[in-house]
Design brief:
Elements lengths: L1 H27 L1 H13 L7 H12 L18 H33 L6 H22 L12 H24 L7 H12 L14 H46 L6
Helix pairs in contact: 1-4, 1-8, 2-8, 4-8, 5-6, 5-8, 6-7
């Protein structure tokens, strides 16, 4: 009963948050991506620099990267088809995050032994999730605009995993541990930056003509801001809805686990 309610709540919460963030992206992030793809298609890298070589590498080996554009890789058509698939991807991603949040809030309430879950406490959980999954990793690896070049995909994935894991462990130490040991959370949060994020020399647009590179840099700044807003909306919505869902539907099943006096 408890497991089924957690899964059903995660499905509902993820669907609502995924549709919400899709609407936000349609308004502010997708136009920037479309503008960058125009430059990406028309730009001719000025010379075969290290960045251009890495760009080719990414296209050859990063089939799962949203920014890779292999001619033989399937991609949705622009317009309605693309928006639909983007919304489906957002909903599925949000369901996965929602499952983690609902389970975490349920466990937290069970261990504390009181009715703690609510929209307000859910917002705090959502903010913590945003810091772990987006905020902290973005300080080392900013959101990548289509057409930008970057370090090998495996290196970026490895560093992102380190940053997200360190964020979760560091915040958990600061929030739940009492005494001097909690200060170790600060060191854990700083660990990925001591290791260093992977970057290529020359920057993400080093292989492009200077005029196009400057326009891409301007778009990249706006894209980073838009992505920050969209992900914050997604995580805060996930947190608030997860807190409400636990209080409304999971708590009764959780009460059945309590020992009868």
């Amino acid at each position: 009963m408890l497991f089924r309610r957690i899964v059903l709540c995660a499905l509902l919460v993820g669907a609502l948050a995924g549709l919400l963030v899709s609407a936000v992206q349609h308004w502010q992030a997708i136009p920037l991506i479309a503008a960058a793809e125009v430059f990406e298609g028309s730009a001719d890298p000025a010379e075969p620099t290290l960045a251009a070589t890495a760009h080719d590498h990414d296209h050859d080996h990063a089939g799962g990267d949203a920014h890779a554009h292999d001619a033989e890789t399937w991609a949705p058509e622009d317009g309605g088809e693309r928006h639909v698939w983007t919304a489906i991807a957002n909903v599925l991603t949000a369901i996965g995050f929602g499952l983690v949040l609902v389970a975490a809030i349920t466990t937290w309430e069970h261990l504390r032994g009181g009715p703690l879950a609510s929209a307000g406490t859910g917002l705090v959980w959502g903010a913590a999730g945003w810091i772990c999954v987006f905020g902290l990793p973005t300080l080392g690896l900013p959101p990548e605009l289509p057409g930008s070049v970057a370090a090998p995909l495996g290196d970026r994935q490895g560093w992102w995993l380190l940053a997200a894991t360190s964020g979760a462990a560091g915040l958990a130490l600061l929030a739940f541990v009492r005494g001097p040991l909690r200060l170790a959370g600060i060191a854990v949060l700083l660990l990925p930056f001591a290791v260093g994020a992977p970057h290529l020399a020359g920057g993400p647009f080093a292989g492009y003509d200077i005029g196009i590179a400057r326009q891409m840099e301007a778009l990249a700044g706006s894209f980073a801001f838009a992505t920050t807003i969209a992900t914050a909306v997604q995580w805060l919505a996930l947190g608030a809805l997860s807190g409400l869902a636990v209080a409304r539907w999971v708590r009764p099943a959780l009460a059945e686990l309590a020992p009868t006096p």
